[in-house]
Amino acid sequence: MSIFPVDIVAQAEAIIRDFTAAGLMVSTAESCTGGLIAGALTEISGSSSVVDRGFVTYTNTAKMEMLGVQEETLIRFGAVSEETARQMVHGALFRSRAAIAVAVTGIAGPGGGSAQKPVGLVHLAAKSRAGGLTHQKMHYGDIGRDEVRLATVRTAFGMIQELAQL
Questions:
Q1: What class of enzyme is it (predicted)?
Q2: Which of 41, 149, 55 is nearest to 94 (CA)?
């Protein structure tokens, strides 16, 4: 039995199966999900051949130190931005042995939102060593902290699978 919903387990199983068959590895850079993406992947037996590493970079300092996010980016655009997500995923990919990386940064709530950046806003980026880069800006809404985080895991898994095209 898993601590994750059945649909997330199914997505994780597919990623582990497909990446194992292709000999690919993945890394994660997580802020608002706090490691849930890596946690859902490692819930699956055999994930050690696929999951290279996960970076939980909840603070701006961690984003800069662990992933190389530029301070200027954080000042100009904020932690919850497309620019930050793109720099996070770049850092995760090139600080790992992964073929594909995914990064997420957002506002899970219940507090912390603003008119410009409301609760439920999440930026996700996925990048491949083969050159692919995708970004999604999600407005999940104020659906509750757990639901924002789980919805983000689902979206991240979809992006990983799409970029891998397996």
A1: hydrolase
A2: 55
Inside any domain, residue 10: yes
Residue type at position 143: I
Strand duo 121-128 + 100-106: pairing: antiparallel
The answer to the question of residue 1 being in a domain is: no
Cα distance between residue 21 and residue 42, in whole Å: 17
Give the closest residue to 103 by CA, choosing from 78, 84, 75, 131: 84
Total domains present in the chain: 1
The answer as to whether 154 is a domain residue is yes
- What residues make up the domain containing 95? 6-165
Give the three-state DSSP class for 126: strand
Residue 138 lies in a domain: yes
Task: Give the global pTM.
Answer: 0.97
Residue 71: which CATH number? 3.90.950.20
Tokens, residue 137 = 């800006």
Contact indicator for 160, 100 with CB cutoff of 8 Å: yes
Q: How far apart are CA 109 and CA 50, in angstroms?
A: 31
Helix, strand or coil, per DSSP, at residue 70: coil
Site of tokens 């990623």: 15
